[in-house]
């Protein structure tokens, strides 16, 4: 009898004591499914087994947490491991920071709070979200995903920045470490951002200084971007204005003249500190 794994999963009927007889075919079926698993995984060394186990225990789908509005944090639909248990949400979940810290606490200005995924411990393996003042990351049935920093004003304050511990790391050089989209006309303001503070300094027409929340490891990172409308060229102001925690960009039209734009978008790649 051929095994169902790996193209399918075998459903086993639980035997009932004093009612069901265990026959040789039942044992053979278990052996065949077990052999199929071994054949699929192959043979590896003990070191490789340890590495594979650690990878599986720390698995998390690379979809970063984000702020959707004000003080609302969203964990997009994804899969992850929490305390050696696989959990999966098929839809995004969102939660307001204020009123939900360590259960029901209120948020304060200029304060860091930590975002956790919480195993619901139900059939199907779903998870919910919580906020804590501690980053101990040893709460049973919970996994710390990152942190948020509240703004300096507001009651309750908005979230000024958010950091995903599993996504924005120096080992993930292929991933964008910071990005933003903002209106550069009048008083500059972000439409949306990641790992950037809310502060935009307007240095003049088509000239802005932007601040990174979690600093880059050095000033050798890459900035790419574009401006809308007649603004066609986005460039560094000068090498001296590219710092670990901030950078200055200028917008020009094709004739070289400075110009503002109502939508300026950029992305940052490199090592984070």
Name the descriptors.
2 helices; 273 residues; four-stranded antiparallel sheet; single chain; 17 strands; 39% strand; 3 domains; mainly beta
Blueprint (SSEs and pairs):
Elements: H1 24-41, H2 46-57, E1 66-69, E2 72-75, E3 78-82, E4 85-89, E5 93-96, E6 112-119, E7 127-132, E8 142-154, E9 157-164, E10 178-183, E11 189-194, E12 196-204, E13 207-212, E14 222-227, E15 233-236, E16 246-252, E17 264-269
Antiparallel strand pairs: 1-2, 2-5, 3-4, 6-7, 6-8, 8-9, 10-11, 10-17, 12-13, 13-16, 14-17, 15-16
Question: Explain this structure to me?
Answer:
The protein has helices spanning about 25-40, 45-55, and strands at about 65-70, 70-75, 80, 85-90, 95, 110-120, 125-130, 140-155, 155-165, 180-185, 190-195, 195-205, 205-210, 220-225, 235, 245-250, 265-270. By secondary structure, it is mainly β. The chain has 3 domains: about 1-45, no CATH class; about 65-165, no CATH class; about 180-270, no CATH class. The strands form 5 sheets. Strands 7-6-8-9 form a 4-stranded antiparallel β-sheet, with no helix packed on it. It has a 4-stranded antiparallel β-sheet with strand order 11-10-17-14, with no helix packed on it. The longest helix is centred in the N-terminal third of the chain and has 18 residues, at about 25-40. Mean pLDDT is about 85; it is low at about 170.
Q: Mean pLDDT, nearest integer? A: 84
What is the distance, rounded to the nearest whole angstrom, between the alpha carbons of the first and last residues?
A: 56 Å
Which structural class fits the helix and strand makeup? mainly beta
Number of strands: 17
Rg, please?
25 Å
N-to-C order of helices and strands:
HHEEEEEEEEEEEEEEEEE
Strands side by side in the biggest sheet? 7-6-8-9
Q: pLDDT under 50 segments (min length 5)?
A: 168-172
Helical content, roughly? 10-25%
Q: Work out the helix count.
A: 2
Number of domains: 3
Q: What global shape is seen?
A: elongated
Oligomer: single chain
Main sheet summary: 4 strands, antiparallel
How much strand content do the residues show? 35-45%
């Amino acid at each position: 009898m051929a095994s169902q794994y790996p193209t399918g999963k075998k459903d086993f009927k639980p035997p009932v004591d004093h009612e069901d007889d265990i026959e040789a075919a039942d044992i053979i079926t278990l052996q065949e499914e077990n052999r199929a698993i071994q054949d699929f995984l192959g043979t590896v060394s003990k070191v490789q087994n340890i590495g594979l186990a650690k990878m599986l225990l720390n698995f998390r789908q690379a979809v970063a947490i984000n702020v959707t509005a004000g003080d609302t944090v969203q964990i997009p639909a994804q899969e992850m491991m929490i305390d050696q248990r696989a959990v999966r949400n098929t839809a995004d979940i969102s939660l307001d920071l204020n009123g939900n810290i360590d259960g029901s606490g209120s948020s304060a200005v200029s304060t860091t709070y930590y975002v956790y995924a919480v195993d619901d411990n139900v059939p199907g393996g779903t998870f919910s979200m919580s906020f804590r003042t501690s980053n101990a990351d040893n709460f049973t049935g919970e996994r710390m995903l990152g942190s948020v920093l509240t703004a300096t004003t507001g009651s309750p304050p908005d979230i000024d920045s958010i950091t995903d511990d599993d996504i924005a790391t120096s080992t993930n050089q292929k991933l964008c470490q910071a990005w933003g989209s903002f209106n550069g006309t009048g008083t500059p303001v972000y439409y949306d951002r990641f790992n950037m503070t809310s502060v935009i300094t307007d240095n003049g027409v088509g000239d802005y200084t932007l601040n990174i929340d979690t600093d880059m490891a050095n000033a050798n990172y890459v900035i790419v971007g574009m401006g809308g409308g007649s603004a066609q060229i986005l460039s560094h102001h000068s090498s001296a204005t590219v710092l670990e925690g901030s950078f200055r960009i200028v917008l020009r039209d094709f004739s070289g003249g400075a110009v503002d734009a109502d939508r300026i978008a950029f992305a940052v790649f490199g090592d984070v500190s």
